[in-house]
Amino acid sequence: MPQLDVEQISRQYFARIHRAALALTGNPWDADDLAQETFLVLTSQQGSFRGHSTVYTWLYGILLNLERRERRRYGMRRRKLKVLWDNEPNKGERTTPAAETPIEVSEWKKSLWAWVDKLPDGQRYSLVLRFSEGLRYDEIADTLSCPLGTVKSRIFHGLSALRRMMDGEEHGNEARESPDFPYEDLIHAI
User: Fold this and answer.
1) Which of 26, 28, 67, 173 is the most exposed place for a label (fewest CB within 10 A)?
2) Nearest to 38 by CA among 13, 1, 74
């Protein structure tokens, strides 16, 4: 088991992890939190690094697990609030709260990453790691703990789905957001 120099690893890879977190979350505040939490996990669990992968692919794995947990937590919170809202007596008087939206968030929502965010997790993670982070296919497979062919398939189908969604937007049609192979992630989750 290799000894990790957490300080050096943090200096070397924090910017890359933060960039991936920004591509995944779409806003700088959540990206900051996610990147910092990734390095907190590195600090507290450095003994679990076995050296079977490179340090940065291991860090991306931590980042993706944390992001997945946050999405689930956010989804559960949203469902609970919806139940409360639906049961509220004055639901006809719904007003949307005014929120300040920074330019970065606005730009992200107009960017390709906002489209990528609509894809299933496997395709989304594969595309972020490939095109935002420049990882090779084998590094992505290592990070996601799946076969190389699955990574290639996710990237191919993710790009195809993006093309269809964007074509649908250009033509004013409702874009189809469901993937070609919706169960591909379930196979590897077992």
Assistant:
1) 173
2) 13
- Element containing residue 61 per DSSP (H, E): helix 55-87
Domain ranges of the chain: 1-89, 111-190
Give me the count of residues in the chain.
190
Dihedral angle, C-alpha 98, 100, 104, 107, nearest 10 °? 30
CA 61, 157, 117, 76 dihedral sign is negative
Q: pTM for the full model?
A: 0.61
pLDDT of residue 1: 53
Q: What is the CATH number of domain 1-89?
A: 1.10.1740.10
Domain 111-190 has CATH 1.10.10.10: yes
